[in-house]
Amino acid sequence: MSSLVKRTIYTGTFIHTPSPGYLEIIENGAIGVDEDGIIIFIVKLLENHHVKKVAKRVAETYGWDHGVDVVASVQGRSTFWFPGFIDTHIHASQLPNAGIFGTSTLLDWLEKYTFPLEHSLSSLNVARRVYNTAVRSTLAHGTTTAAYYATIHAASTNLLAEICLEMGQRAFVGNVCMDSKETCPDYYRHESFRASLADTKQVVEYIRSKDPKGALVQPIVTPRFAPSCTKPLLKALGDLSNSEHLAIQTHVSENKSELALVREMFPENSSYADVYYSYGLLNKRTVLAHGIYLSDEEIALIKQQGSGVSHCPVSNTSLGSGICPVRKLLEKGIKVGLGTDVSGGGSCSILTAAREAAGVSRLLSAYSEGDHRDRVKLNVNECLYLATRGGANCLDLGHKVGAFEVGMQWDAQMVELLDVSPQGDVDGASGEKGFAQCWGKESWEEKVAKWMYTGDDRNTRRVYVKGRLVHERLW
Hints:
This protein is an alpha/beta fold. It is built from 14 helices and 19 strands. Helix 3 (124-140) packs parallel to helix 4 (154-167) and helix 12 (350-366) crosses helix 13 (380-394).
């Protein structure tokens, strides 16, 4: 993939969700991106033909008279540009276990499957194999930004950050913190809160040495979840986050057994969210995964602190955890994004998470009553907003990525769907472009819906991060 970024004009149809529920479609458009990967202008082209000639006239209008590349979306009825996906919650270390659940639920799943796998990544050879695959796989699915949990091992966590930088993926990379003898196995936990804090500090320093401005990769404070951490560790991580202005990621209210464990271990706190608040771990840079069973008081606290919630519908279903009331969170003003939660979730595709978000919202609607029943459902536009700008807002990146606006960075994917010919043939070899089929009469809104409900990584033709081509599918 290209390591250099030139001034480039991208042409074609551009589709994004700049606000919840609003799908903006720019047909025959052009977006100018400079050498820093910043969107400089967005225009609508008046001519359908001679794209390069029109694009060059546009370039001249903006003083781009030379050294400009033109990238046209693949010629076809059903190709468009869409913002890159934002995965707000993914355990990169767990990728080899994707699809393995048995009949377990959260806490026994951690003991049986997750901790042994994560422990194996103390080997840098194992970690390199897993993390190379994780970053390549997420990029191939259109994920331009990911909030990664690594393991308790600082060296392999640093390796994940290196790989993200090498492959060009925007990422938050966290060393997992867990030191509780009560809840963590002897073979997989930090020896003390000081050891856990030292590893986190080492990772923070390492990532900042590699990317001082956090232009692409940033460190993120990562207490696994409250029960895995002693109170001194939670306090130390809260102090570190606040003094160093670091983002925070953790879990909250995923499972009823987990809630009971939190009440047992933190009787002095009024709620699960209050535990994080009391230790300085709840602020506008915090992403809380799951949030299925949040009380009204917790929602008000999260709103007050400006924290976000990562909705992980695939994982919630796979582990039988429950259904997050996303509409309620949105109506209360909570920032919400989507997470794949690999390997609780069996797919690293945010597109899969988006359609699952729509599906579980309809299921929740079926169990709801009263006038609010239909409001519970999430539509296609809302789910794609969560997959892009909603997630960017959760990670405090809403001003940089997640939509196509002047001043934002060019994190984008070229999407190509199947066009079925009048004879019933499919353009291209059978199966190469997936099952998202277009028959010639669909509106752009309908094509986008087909993509969300039936698309996969075969539809992701190209992926760009900060103007750099980081993935390309060749047929």
